[in-house]
């Protein structure tokens, strides 16, 4: 696009032909595809999600469809009371409410889930991390299974991650993969955007899971639109139309340049 703008500018300043003379045959193009901007206005902790990018939209659609089932709807109803306990605790530590959905994707809001790596409880904290945050973890007591205590620990941890990484989206990635791993990826790839980083499969999917769960809770109508497939379909059509327009414009500009 930059190249086309520069080309058009060059032609104009030479006095050969103004950009207004460039014509694109409308018959070769479809009518503009209308996409409701609200369907793309999804954020995580106030950070915009680039859903106008087709690959990101497709991944999000796939994820939100995975949660469109009776089991998840039952879980949503079951966990409402616990969510009300979690949110004010996170707020105390300056952590956005969107993180209250982590226990749903980590443990299905259950206290007795334990991973093969040793993470346990609602927030699936590792023993060493839990202890460093002031929780007691031993053979007779495990504070990771206590909703209030473990949420205070999670709030402290998430706050410290944000101080280190500066982005809540990256904090979510670090919660899943570990801060050192995310920082190493950022340094080696010279990028600080979650959606541009090359991460392992699990961490790549993590933010999409959080977004999908959040959306089903907060905006079920918009979620159903995404499940229907209409958003990605329209976005794909729009991208195809824009590509045709760019190609046609470039051809016209090349012709003008050749005739000058």
Automatic annotation (TrEMBL):
Residue ranges of domain Transglycosylase SLT in the record: 89-194
CDD domains in the record: MltD-like (cd16894)
Stated name of the protein: Lytic transglycosylase domain-containing protein
UniProt superkingdom: Bacteria
Family to which this protein belongs: Belongs to the transglycosylase Slt family.
Gene3D superfamilies with a match to the protein in the record: 1.10.530.10
